[in-house]
UniProtKB/TrEMBL annotation:
Ranges where the Fucosyltransferase C-terminal domain occurs: 218-394
GO cellular component: Golgi cisterna membrane; Golgi membrane
Lineage: Eukaryota, Metazoa, Spiralia, Lophotrochozoa, Annelida
Transmembrane segments: 12-31
Taxonomic source organism: Dimorphilus gyrociliatus
Parts forming coiled coils: none
Protein's recorded name: Fucosyltransferase
Length: 421
């Protein structure tokens, strides 16, 4: 009898030990250095696992705002999704969700690693690119494939997800996907999972803000810089820049200009050059499309302490995505000449110029934990089934993109057939 009791206690100790190891291992994986300086100050995890679920449910993010709502077009729902733990989810009992990556894993590790490494609140998902698993998968993720025989194999129990980061000008016709795609994952805020190039998030705790007294004009002798590789964009941006250059010094780097610098990744690179020498940066996108704001704006300009002049999405989209008072909207000016006059004025007035940098220190670009959010949503058993009857129409409504200014609706693209390559 005593023997059994001892064995029972030993087993308990052993189980407890394993549990502590598990929590210690899962809970202490360092943040991915490659993703710095994106911070993840809004920590989700505590190490007390049994209380974990409760704590999430008490969190201030509203779980009813996890799915897109046409009445709320400027809510990307990223923070809600990052904190979302479905009621039906049990970290120890819910069955694993298999996500089949139709176009391969790319840099992603297979299996559960990505979810554990990212400290997802819901991490019971695995990634695979093994085609044998396609039929068993809970979700199929399409990144570069838009058409093919595979559409015949549609298993209605699966969630099909379409991921797109390029604008409608640079993505093919999606008609063969009509009726097949359940969720979208794009830069658009009305996607099921918004996948922005970057997301600026104000500090929740304003005492984290840093007082900012720096003079951002200091030592900068040059005026406007532009780094550009694709000269034939769909929005007249090159013509605009050339016209602007008649009235203010514009240095064009890359394929469309005469100047060269090293890539943004290297030390002492384009990025250092921008920070040191230039006051303004043309963050002109290759497409004028709703919500289409890329790293050109966030990385090239904002994070290099240079004031961006933007062209791309409608102004209201920038106002929602950008830090407050952080950019100049090109279309606000009647002509490039008017813009140049304004830039000259800022160039001569450091106080006015520095007004555009007051936001610095009030927030960060965050890692939006895309795969964590995907895993959470896949575990939501109570979600209403959804799919896009006409995904092509969703992607290319008449208001999606314009060839020129947003203020003139006769430039909006209504017939897309001519734009497909
Ligand atoms: C806000 O941040 C400060 C400094 O980091 C900290 O002392 C304080 O407890 C935080 N407040 C809240 C409500 O988190
Ligand atoms: C996914 O889409 C299919 C149509 O392609 C539909 O029959 C199914 O109900 C959807 N599933 C969910 C969970 O939304
Ligand atoms: C709008 O664009 C069209 C076509 O380019 C042009 O004819 C028209 O004058 C423009 N309207 C305004 C108000 O600028």
């Amino acid at each position: 009898m005593r023997f059994y009791k001892k064995r029972f206690i030993l087993s308990l100790v052993f189980i407890g030990f394993c549990y502590v190891c598990y929590i210690a291992l899962i809970g202490n994986i360092p943040l991915n250095d490659l993703e710095m300086p994106r911070k993840h100050y809004d920590i989700l995890w505590t190490k007390k696992s049994e209380k974990l679920v409760l704590q999430f449910h008490q969190h201030s993010y509203d779980p009813s705002k996890v799915y897109s709502n046409p009445d709320d077009p400027y809510h990307d729902r990223i923070l809600e999704q990052m904190h979302f733990v479905p009621n039906s989810y049990d970290p120890f009992r819910s069955s694993e969700k298999i996500i089949y990556m139709f176009d391969g894993l790319g840099d992603l590790p297979s299996g559960r690693e990505k979810f554990v490494f990212d400290k997802c609140p819901v991490d019971n998902c695995v990634l695979t690119d093994d085609s044998i698993k396609m039929s068993d998968a809970d979700a199929v993720f399409f990144k570069d494939s838009y058409a093919g025989d595979f559409v015949k194999d549609r298993n209605p129990d699966q969630i099909w997800i379409l991921y797109m980061l390029e604008s409608p000008f640079h993505t093919p016709d999606l008609t063969t996907f009509n009726g097949l795609i359940n969720w979208t994952a794009t830069y658009r805020w009305d996607s099921t999972l918004t996948a922005p190039y970057e997301r600026f998030t104000l500090h929740k705790n304003i005492s984290m803000n840093k007082l900012n007294t720096r003079n951002y004009a200091n030592g900068k002798k040059k005026k406007v810089a532009w780094f550009v590789s694709n000269c034939g964009a769909m929005n007249q941006r090159l013509e605009y820049a050339k016209e602007l250059a008649k009235y203010i010094e514009v240095d064009i780097f890359g394929a469309c200009g005469e100047l060269q610098c090293n890539s943004f990744d290297e030390k002492n690179s384009c990025s250092k050059l921008l920070q040191r020498e230039y006051k303004f940066y043309l963050a002109f996108e290759n497409s004028n499309c709703r919500y289409y704001i890329t790293e050109k704006f966030f990385r090239n300009a904002l994070w290099n302490d240079v004031l961006p002049v933007v062209m791309g999405a409608p102004k209201v989209d920038y106002e929602h995505a950008a830090p407050p008072n952080s950019f100049i909207y090109a279309e606000d000016f009647e002509t490039p000449e008017h813009l140049a006059n304004y830039l000259h004025r800022l160039d001569q007035n450091d106080d006015e110029y520095n007004e555009y940098f007051k936001w610095k220190g009030t927030g960060d670009l965050i890692d939006t934990k895309f795969f964590c959010r995907l895993c959470s949503l896949l575990h939501d058993e109570s979600a209403t089934p959804r799919y896009y009857k006409d995904i092509e129409k969703w992607w290319r409504t008449p208001l999606t993109c314009t060839r020129d200014k947003w203020s003139n609706s006769s430039h909006y693209i209504t017939d897309w057939t001519a734009t497909f390559q």
